[in-house]
Amino acid sequence: MQQQIVEILKEIRPEFEFEGVENFFDEGMLDSFDLMTLVSTLDERFLIKIDGTDILPENFANVESIEALVQRSKKR
Amino acid sequence: MKFKFKDKAITGMMVVVPEQERLFVDDMKMFNAPENRSRKLAMVMGYNAHRVVEDGVCASDLAEYGFKNLFETGKIKPEEIDALVYVTLSPDHFMPPTSCILHGKLGLRRDCFCTDIAQGCCGFIVGLLQALQLLEQQGVNKVAVVNADVLSRKVSPKDRNSYPLIGDAATITIVENRPGAGDVVADVRFDGTRSMALKVPAGGFRQPSTPETAIMSADEEGNERAPDNLVMDGTAVFNFVMADVPPMLSDLVMDAGKDFAGIDKYYFHQPNRFMLQKLAEKLDVPYEKMPNNVVEHYGNSSGATIPSAMALNDFESLCRETKKVCFSGFGVGLTYGGIVMNCGNFDFCETINYPNKGE
Fold it and tell me: What is the value of ipTM here, to two decimals?
């Protein structure tokens, strides 16, 4: 799943390498607009509906936190 | 604060949008972001076309145009209007109240009550609520609620956060006592601790406009704006809507003796498609029961978006049948509220263009 998440991130911001980065927002790799595009793409690709209250930068800070959120959303 | 009313109804609705249309494909050339990234964002948010006024056009010009159309076509008469509730965040002047300017231009009666309300995203709810309260007074039978804004004049064209979604419009909603119309249940809440999440920093008495407040600078996301421009903390507003609006609506619908499935249609404020889809998911309401296409056609026109959504999507059915509807507005203030009522069999429900005047 992590590989798929990285591919999605690179579709949105192809100029960055996302593996191993601790916080995409602190590093200026994602902004609040990218976050909306990312949520929409994750919903579509993983057939989930990420809860609106989970759309917080900390849940999308790095590949691991995104994976954890996708897993949580799949269980709903 | 919760409210209950009986036997009051919306009987007509008129939406006025400027003829001038801007397209997102043109807007995005002004943004400090690659085209591909902007296009992806547009798909998610619903950015497409938005209606904005020409230079110098005020919100009350759109409202006056709408009223004159209603008078000329005989849908209402000026002497029938017992009260005019004018809701805006873009008044013509600091003084006089814009409702008084309209009162004069429209030739309303001297005893027609006029008031301005400074509300935006929740302005339809607050304005309708004021009308419902006025209708409790003996002798008040017809109230005109105007939601009018031209906030495009306050948004920087280089602000990707706000410019592509902003639209201008005026709407006129006629509210009357109607025996047998049924119960109206309302709830409006406020959180002033977060009032600065959506603001125009300069131009009031706290920070008057000066040549310096017109100077633009870039934020950390590359959007350029000046203190004279509207600025929105989009993340804070989104999180507020997702966390605070659903519990309020849950209480409201329960107070109306319904559950979410028992509401025929949800006419909500139209910030963008993404937020409305996420809100529909939170409420477990099918997307088709909650229109989300006003930003795509006209842009977000502040308090005017709810009537715009109704006239855009359901102008025929609203004149033909009655539905149980839930209105909700949320945003600047921060203010959030909702109304559940029977709605339909309108005498009119239409959208007209305010013509371009320039060459």
Answer: 0.90
